[in-house]
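Obj: model holo form, ligand = 3,4-dihydroxyphenylalanine.
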Amino acid sequence: MNELDSIVESAVSAFAQAATPADLENAKARYLGKSGSLTELMKGMAALGPDEKKSRGAAINLAKQAIEAALTARRQGLADAELQAQLQAQALDVSLPGRQRGTGGLHPISLTMERIEQIFASMGFDVADGPEIETDWHSFTSLNNPPNHPARSMQDTFYVDMKGDDGIHYNLRPHTSPMQVRYAHQHIKKYADAVKAGASMPEIRVIAPGRTYRVDSDATHSPMFHQCEGLWLGENVSFKDLKVVFTDFCRTFFETEDLALRFRPSFFPFTEPSAEIDIQFQSGPLAGRWLEVAGSGQVHPTVVRNMGLDPEKHIGFAFGMGPDRLTMLRYGVNDLRLYFDGDIRFLAQFR
Ligand code: DAH
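Output (holo structure tokens):
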């Protein structure tokens, strides 16, 4: 084997043995570097005559090309191996199940509120929304509460550190009943215009669901709770209509015809006569018990007057019910606080 062939062979094997790119570059220097073996041979050519120089030069060039080809191939080989190792080390198991995001759902009380709105809307009731921070006049006075009524006391009602026009602190509304008067005031101009235009006085038929607040906390009372007010005033709206509307509502809400209703005489300042509405399931786990679900009554003439309406012409009923309690009855939940603890294990059951 001539000298050139053996240099090529030794270079190819040195490259093959180089385990890292750095090893490889060191090996390259031994053959192609400034004092590499091939470079030394090229330097030796200076002493040769022209013909010899030509043939010798061609041979050395061939050897050089062979060594460079081997070097390039090995460089590529090492780079491929490194990439392969990297891929292996950072391997992703694409067959692993992904991290799932739970599907959300409405809160059970929101579900109830939506249900109440839908049912009453289907009976022609408007749905109204109003402020949770109320004036003393709207929460109490307009609703015929005497000045010394216990509901006004700090033990029952939350007050806000801010005073209204009357110099009395605003309250967190303890019921949705102020919405009766607010709603009438909001629409009074429309009613007056209609009458002026010769139409008969339009009816007021509205529900007002929302948050309410009282100083109270136990298994069946929460300082923040919900109410839904109802009001139907017209020329000739009576308790009979209340009974039909409320029975229809309860049967639709609880999805059963097997349900009785009873009006139990009671007292509220804003209605006369007044009644608690009790319901009784004829079957199921609650069968046979009378369950109180709402307060109601014929709207007191003073309240109608405070609405800006004539109590001789606007007669009808109002009711106030507790959506929280309706939700408990519907789903068989016995502690109200569960609704407001925010425990996903409880809430997820209503999705
Ligand atoms: N506002 C009453 C309460 O908070 C509930 C109520 C009773 C509302 C009779 C009414 C009604 O509209 O007519 O307990």
